[in-house]
Structures are given as structure tokens and as C-alpha cells.
Design a protein that fits this description.
Layout (H helix, E strand, L loop, with lengths): L4 E5 L6 H11 L10 E5 L5 H8 L4 E5 L16 H7 L3 E4 L2 H6 L4 H14 L2 E6 L3 H5 L3 H13 L10 E5 L13 H18 L2 H6 L1 E5 L7 H5 L6 E4 L6 H8 L3
Parallel strand pairs: 1-2, 1-8, 2-3, 3-4, 4-5, 5-6, 6-7, 7-8
Helix pairs in contact: 1-2, 1-11, 5-7, 7-8
The structure holds 1,3-dihydroxyacetonephosphate.
Length: 250
């Protein structure tokens, strides 16, 4: 039995004040939730505020990226020990916006993922094809490659700290959601690739989240699919009422 995860990726939105206001509104709405884990990923500057606001609740706090070294001359970067120190328990890695605008590659994703899990963070590793790749019939091949290369040299217990998020680039921020069938096909393929790369037991336990224009009115249909174990929600996660509605998809 895989516990579903509903995660919100705020991207470059919300100040600390706005973060406090968000949690003040969200927490009373999700107090009785037990069917899923809840994760919120604010920008770096609001992480501490979010950790304090979420203390004693079921909400875990995630970074949106992390560097693979613990410290060093890497201007602008933040490390795993720094995130752990402030109370973060998750990080997103390899989001398509980082691949597209900040030269993230399968190789850097692999280094970050290895560092994150070795240090004790859970890693939400994002994969997903572009529209051009899907139209060219390469979607499965691209995502298979991202799973194999991006997760790379992980072993045994590390595998239980990995969560994969399938986010087709053509569905992010476009209002165009992958149909449950398209998402389910890819999720099954990701699980199969994970089993081939590592082992069946780890693949069976792997949580695979769908991301890309998830809303209160499409979450239930997505969650009915056997291989969809949750969602990574972008813009709709900024609104506490809508995010709560997604969390209560059942
Ligand atoms: P939207 O939900 O805004 O499409 O964003 C999805 C996403 O990129 C989550 O990481």
C-alpha cells in the first residue's frame, strides 16, 4: 500500500508574510486528513517561516532545488545540510523549469539526488517530455532515459527516499492536463523502468506523482489510476482553499 502524496510547488511566489497567511488559512482545513502525506515547497527565503508554521501539523516542507556539495564556493547555491538544519525534509530536483532555464541535466539531477538522499532528505525527482518530443513519438524514451540517468547510482535503502514526479512539459502552466490515461501509461512505464534499473520491491513501493495543471476538478480522476500516487501541484497550490480541495480529492 503506497501512501499518496499531495505536494505544492510554489515556484517563485510568496513572501514570508504571504507564507504565514497561507498556512493560517490551510491548516484548519486539513486537520483531519489522514489518507495522504502533504508537502509544500516554498522559495528558499520562506522555508524557515513555512517550517515554523507547519510545526505539529501533517505538512512537510520541501525545497525546490539543492546543490550536491555540502559547502563550497558555489555562489547562489544552497546545500543539503543547510536545508536539514532549518527543518526541511524534502527537496524537489530536476524540475523542467530548471532543466529549461537553468541548464539542469540528467547528470546534475543524478548528483543532486544522490547527495539529497545520502544526507537524509526525501527527493522528488521530476521527469517529463516536451511537446516536440511527444509529437515525435519520443515521450516514453525520453522519460525512461531521465529515470535511468537522473536516479543513477542509488542503492538499497536510498531508493525508499525517492519520489518521482511525472510532469509533461506541455501540461505545466498551460491549463492542458494530461488525460488520466496518458499519465497512467507513463507512470506504469516509469515503474517498469525503475524495476529494471533497481528491483521489483523498490518499484512497487515507489510513489509516482503527476504534475501539470492539476486542479480540484481533475484530481479525483487522476488519483483513480493505480500507478498515480499523488500530485505535484503548481499554480493552484498557491491558494489555500484550492490546495485543500485537491488534498481532499477522495
Ligand atoms: P501547474 O500546476 O501550474 O501546471 O505547474 C505544475 C508544476 O510545474 C509543479 O511542479
Amino acid at each position: 500500500m503506497r501512501t499518496p502524496i499531495i505536494a505544492g510547488n510554489w515556484k517563485m511566489y510568496k513572501t514570508r508574510l504571504e507564507t504565514s497567511a497561507f498556512f493560517d488559512a490551510l491548516i484548519p482545513q486539513i486537520q483531519d486528513i489522514e489518507h495522504c502525506a502533504i508537502v509544500v515547497a516554498p522559495p528558499y527565503t520562506a522555508l524557515s517561516t513555512a517550517v515554523v508554521e507547519a510545526e505539529g501539523t501533517r505538512v512537510a516542507i520541501s525545497a525546490q532545488d539543492v546543490h550536491w556539495e555540502d559547502q563550497g564556493a558555489f555562489t547562489g547555491e544552497v546545500s543539503v545540510p543547510m536545508l536539514l538544519e532549518i527543518g526541511c525534509t524534502y527537496t524537489i530536483i530536476g524540475h523542467s523549469e530548471r532543466r529549461q532555464y537553468f541548464s539542469e541535466t540528467d547528470e546534475t539531477v543524478e548528483k543532486k539526488t544522490r547527495a539529497a538522499v545520502a544526507g537524509g532528505l526525501k527527493a522528488i525527482v521530476c521527469v517529463g517530455e516536451t511537446l516536440a518530443e511527444r509529437d515525435a513519438g519520443q515521450a516514453l524514451e525520453v522519460v525512461r532515459r531521465q529515470v535511468r540517468n537522473g536516479l543513477g547510482r542509488l542503492t538499497g535503502p536510498d531508493l525508499s527516499h525517492i519520489i518521482v514526479a511525472y510532469e509533461p512539459v506541455w501540461a505545466i502552466g498551460t491549463g492542458r492536463t494530461a488525460t488520466p490515461e496518458i499519465a497512467a501509461e507513463m507512470h506504469a512505464e516509469i515503474r517498469k523502468t525503475f524495476a529494471e534499473t533497481y528491483n521489483e520491491v523498490a518499484a512497487e513501493a515507489l510513489r509516482i506523482l503527476y504534475g501539470g495543471s492539476v486542479k480540484p476538478d481533475n484530481i479525483a480522476a487522476l488519483m483513480k489510476e493505480e500507478d498515480i500516487d499523488g500530485a505535484l501541484v503548481g499554480s493552484v497550490s498557491l491558494d489555500p482553499a484550492s490546495f485543500a480541495a485537491i488534498i481532499k480529492y477522495q
